[in-house]
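Give me the 3D structure for Glycosyltransferase family 2 protein.
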Amino acid sequence: MTQQAPQLSVVVPVFNERDNVAPLVGEITAALRGVLPFEIVYVDDHSRDDTLDVLRALKAQVPELRVIHHVSQSGQSTAIRTGVKAARGAWIATLDGDGQNDPADIPKLLAQRASAAPDIKLFAGWRVHRRDSGSKRWASKWANAIRSRMLRDATPDTGCGIKLFERAAFLDLPYFDHMHRYLPALMQRAGWKTVSVPVNHRPRSAGVSKYNNLGRALVGIADLRGVAWLIKRGKLTQVREIE
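Predicted structure for Glycosyltransferase family 2 protein (243 residues):
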């Protein structure tokens, strides 16, 4: 049977998440089958465990699943961009591969989009009740406060992995490593509006986190300065076609 062209592409970047792949794919299909035509694009960022083998086996069972592999480790932002470029849907939903984002929230984001103005191109998940360690929650709160003050993006939680955005608008943004943490500010810089939507957040059930607070903070300082510069140097021009 011919697969219907997807309206939505769910992009999931993964690195060493072999035990989280099958449960998350099952939850995505349960949330979206019968809602709209969709595809799932997993991007394996050169995992060192057998994540890719698990994905290969699962691909034979799940017709919506596509698998892309980085031949060298390139980071989460690059993996997301790889998935978005390969996606066939006009809209993209992203999820972290660790299972902490709840795929059942994707229909909630789609419902928000259905009633939103056309100039809103990003619906960002907002983890109102974090299910992380105390140190991780504190570090995130500190980082969000600094980012909000510098970028004035009116977004309480840019680090949440579940987002819904227009593919074309995303691909028009400047690309750099770690850009996925600054999507609201970058979308606003491009002249689009963004909204934050409360979503569920779950404890990690398998595997280990790939980040530490100190490393993330050190990289974040440089990133913030760069994004602030991009915003300052950005320029929007109104255009119209002459009939």
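The two ends are 44 Å apart (CA to CA). Let me know if you want a second pass.
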